[in-house]
Amino acid sequence: MFKYIYFFLAFLLYLLAIPYLLLKSRTPKYKDAIPAKFFLKNNPPFEENKIWLHSCSMGETRALKPIFESLDQDDINLSVITNTGYEEGMKFVKNVRYLPFEIFLPFWIKRQKILLVMEAELWYMLFLVASKKGSKTVLINARINDKSYLTYKKYKFFYQHIFKHIDTIFAQTDIDKKRLEELGGKNIEVIGNIKLASLPKVTKIYTKPDGVLITAGSTHKSEEELILNSWDRKQGRLVIVPRHPERFDEVWELITSKYKNSGLRYHRFSQKEDFESDIILVDKMGELNNIYSVSDVVILGGGFIKTAGGHNPIEPAFFGSKLISGKVIFNQKSLFECVNNYYLCEPSELQSYLDKIDFLEKSSIGQKGDISPIIQMIKESNGNR
User: Which of 6, 366, 351 is nearest to 155 (CA)?
Assistant: First the structure.
């Protein structure tokens, strides 16, 4: 009875939302996503008997990379919710779809060997229909944070219906396991956070200079000027690593024009691979982790402008730097949750944070993840529940 009531309410909601959806679908941001999710435009069902993974946005999709790399691409189906998740998925997988709205799932879903759903994507019809069609259903990287816990408990009746159709859960922590069990979860194994299953690697070892080394990593246009205006040599040496290589010359021109008669030394990393100058422009690709490994402080780019949505904090945190970012991190929130001790500031506050470097705490990453149990389950799965 519950499933029929749920479907009816979802169908009613869909009918009421149609005018709004048609209006939003005319905007560039949603011109592909809304027609695909709510009208099935260019969104056919997946082929049967594949390995189906589902995630929401960019961060969750990117975290699946180690799993993608462990499997044959031809065997993978990936569904997502957001535009950024779709774009990220296309980098790794051939078969990517937007997950249709729930009323379409009984007709859209075909039997798969296994369905693996990332984190909090607890769509009732998704698990119900996949389960009824014979797919093994798995929730991976599951967690319930303190803030969400009360909400989950409040609607425990509803979540019990969802967990009834989830065969196995891979949780991040023992606390998450306990909370999931309270909601009806079963067959729960704690394997840590899989977003930390693939950690940064150093490809070249550099000598750290004397004093404090501050690295501005993955910076965008306008961020370099902000950082230069906030920085003072007494704070430490400054390394700037622009996000896009086509901007190397532009940033070099900014540095040389600003400090031409200052008495400060500066050089391009491609000409001299050391950190002995006051300002160093890294104009080579593939060096960021190598430089993070010798940095005391990292100013992470992408968070001081509205469009980038931040950049990956796991890399500098892994090397124990003091981590500063802007507050615009909407594309990286899930990864920032994996980091201990970081500082988010407004552009106008950056100088004050640099002035108190000595009092900032070093960042670190949380519990590491192990994807091997997930891979093992995938390889053993034949769709039998």
Answer: 6
177 and 290 part of one domain: no
Residue 382 has pLDDT above 70, yes or no: no
pLDDT per residue as tens digits for the range 147-205: 788 999 999 999 999 999 999 999 998 999 999 999 999 999 999 989 888 888 899 99
pTM over 0.85: no
d(CA 288, CA 65): 20
CB-CB contact of 337 with 312 (8 Å) = no
The domain tally of the chain equals 2
The residue to which tokens 């990936």 are assigned: 78
Residue span of the structural domain in which 218 resides: 213-365
In terms of domains, do 86 and 101 share one?
yes
pLDDT at 147: 78
Convert 339-350 to b/e letters by CB count within 10 Å (16 or more is b). Answer: beebbbbebeeb
Q: What is the pLDDT of residues 328-339, one digit of tens each?
A: 998 888 789 889
CATH of the domain at 263: 3.40.50.2000
Is residue 304 within 8 A of residue 319, CB to CB? The reply is no
For the chain, how far is it from start to end, CA to CA, in angstroms? Answer: 23
55 and 126, same domain (yes or no): yes
Question: How much of the chain exceeds pLDDT 70, in percent?
Answer: 99
Distance of CA 356 to the CA centre of its chain: 29
Q: What would the pLDDT profile of 101-146 be if each residue is shown by its tens digit?
A: 999 999 999 999 999 999 989 999 999 999 999 999 999 999 888 8
8 A C-beta contact, residue 230 and residue 214: no
Q: Does residue 163 sit in the same domain as residue 52? A: yes
In contact, 372 and 170? CB cutoff 8 Å? no
